[in-house]
Amino acid sequence: xxxxxxxxxxxxxGAGELTKIDTQSYPxxxxxxxxxxxxxxxxxxxxxxxxxxxxxxxxQPRQHYVNALCIAKANARAINWEVRxxxxxxxxxxxxxxxxxxxxxxxxxxxxxxxxxxxxxxxMVRKPSxxxxxxxxxxxxxxxxxxxxYDQRYYRQWMHEIPPLQHLxxxxxxxxxxxxxxxxxxPDFPAEKLWQLAIPAEDMPGLFVLSHIDMVLHSATHLFxxxxxxxxxxxxxxxxxxxxxxxxxxxxxxxxxARAVELGLELPLxxxxxxxxxxxxxxxxxxxxxxxxxxxxxxxxxxRLLDSLFLVxxxxxxxxxxxxxxxxxxxxxxxxxxxxxxPWYLLFPHLIRKGWxxxxxxxxx
Amino acid sequence: xxISDLDRNAxxxxxxxxxxxxxxxxxxxxxxxxxxAIACHIEKLYPHSEALDNDAFxxxxxxxxxxxxxxxxxxxxxxxxxxxYKPFKPLPLAQATAAFEWxxxxxxxxxxxxYLIIHSAVVEKDGLGLMLPGSPGSGxxxxxxxxxxxxxxxxSDEMALLSVTDGMIYPVPRPVSLKNQSIQIIKAFxxxxxxxxxxxxxxxxxxxxxxxxxxxxxxxxxxxxAKYLVFPHYQSGCETEVAPLSKGRASMSLIxxxxxFNILGHQGFEMISDLVGSLECHDxxxxxxxxxxxxxxxxxxxxx
Amino acid sequence: MPxxxxxxxxxxxxxxxxVFRFWGEECVVYNPLSGDTHLLPALHAEILQLxxxxxxxxxxxxxxxxxxxxxxxYEEAVEFSSALYKNYKSLGLVDPSWN
Lengths: 365, 304, 99
What we know:
The complex is a heterotrimer of chains A (about 375), B (about 300) and C (about 100). Chain A is of the alpha/beta class and about 375 residues long. Chain A is built from 16 helices and 7 strands. Chain A has helices at about 5-15, 30-35, 40-50, 60-90, 100-105, 130-140, 150-160, 190-195, 210-225, 230-245, 250-265, 265-280, 285-295, 305-315, 325-340, 345-360; strands at about 95-100, 120-125, 140-145, 165, 175, 200, 205-210. In chain A, strand 6 and strand 7 form a beta hairpin. In chain A, helix 12 runs antiparallel to helix 13. In chain B, strands 6, 7, 8, 9, 10, 14, 15 and 16 form an 8-stranded mixed sheet that branches. A 5-stranded mixed sheet of chain B has the order 1-2-3-4-5. In chain B, helix 7 (about 245-255) runs antiparallel to helix 8. With about 100 residues, chain C is an alpha+beta fold. Chain C has one domain. Chain C has a 3-stranded antiparallel sheet. Chain C starts with 18 loop residues before the first strand and ends in an 8-residue tail after the last helix. The interface of B and C includes residues 261 and 273 of B.
């Protein structure tokens, strides 16, 4: 496979080598195009600023990065405002909640928030509070979506979240979770264990984010469970950043492995470590990777085949990094993720529906 | 080199090959298309745009091609792609030129936050700018087209690019998009006006793009200060009325009309406030084009 | 793993951030946290400014101001300013969590 400029860029950022870039001759336009397509342009821009070379870039390309920084800043502001709004609403009913994914990254200002754009807000409440939470949110301007009854049923019955809510005025989408993994694939997932280690927000009783290790595990689970790789490189970059921020310490590596066992998330953790290391050069110690490999259950497909699928699937969707078979690889991984997460008697009807819609170019759920 | 310096075959070869690279306002565009109607559109309406060479920086890589696949033969469609991202649903192939123009507007408005971008026509005379923001049906494009034939120079019929750096408005003069009855009104008003092909039956009605000759447009690199802000309201059969608009209301209306106010945030607020501080603001209701032009003349020649 | 409390950088006072632009009888207020803009009568905006200062200290200032500048009785001033306060709360211009 031909090296992809954006991936090379992310790797050299990880190695602390961005300062070696010759800002006058670097192919900025190409990096802008690839990173915009991969939804990573704001993050690239932030890396350039952090490396202290943004100001040395010729005016025209620099402007695109500066604009991308503006967008990220506005996005963070909007997400934080949504969190405040949710806090007012849920606090009134004494419902505790954990911020998940983007809203958690942005609220806690962690490394995965850097230059990352989020359109949705994800929160988790305890399962017994789910109905109350939904009711009070709907009363306060977060409207239920107009999903068809198939999707409604599918969500309520098999998913770890209710159908997305949308704010009446601001159009923001809210995913209200009671767990981080669909009960259909993991019926006894111990969501209450996430609450035990959740980190409380200062001055805002009832508001939490996941513990650092759980945040990494959730991010890995989300990426490798959902089977959506259209934004795969961006999500992998989140993992890379959080691993570098939270886990680079031998004690923490062991804790991460142990926690994955405790929560039954060995497989996504292995994938996360394997592919961040292979693609983004994340410094995962060899023996940790081996341990992660040993402690997962065997997969249905040979590792070599999976490797070749994943490595292709993570390549951005831009015309300058065309690789053979990316669509097929993403489709197979999509099927595979559903294979893992659903019993066959649910899987086939579901896939026929979703796979068909997907091939028709519409959004899957 | 200008686009008009390319012969028709060279133009088509660029468009269907690596892309025709040209400048519009401050932006570098690369356009790829296999659709002959777009080639004609560019040839007719963008002759004075500078053609860029291969090492010039390109802001927007655009493709506007027919939708491929089975459906293509039954119901030919065109899809606009900004470097692989498709912000709009495909349109009927006959609307290809409109898809290109709307798509380029979308690119500018969603990427170029070095400007606060206000949905407004802007024209200039003697170094003073006139902004005509307005919702569809207000007549801003018609007015703007007529003004470019009445001694005013065009900056844009669609968007005011207010620079974050110096607070000046910069031109991005492109063909003026006219709809429905406006087309006849302008053809009757300015017999010399030239148009591209009619695009019938779009969601906005029938459209024709009016060519803006070089001498009727402001040079791309020149920024201006706006002096007049006029919110036009077309209302058939009414009396012409010029009403002063408070600066508070003017601010609110401009913010409502700014595409990227939410992106620029506090900075955008300061820019709007500074802009409004230096503007004479009016609400303007008029019954027909001639009265509109008289009204604009009256507003812009009055001594403060 | 040690529990760490999330930094409270987001918990900034809204009023200390509000941006006011007075235009004669009117004022445009920008709230950088919500990104919303509001057009208020200048008098109301003055009270909003005083309410926000009051939160940091002297909570009677809006009332004193109304009595001194607009010749309201104490009762009128209290009623007026608390009505505004309620309204601002619903607009997200003052933080409901201060109650």
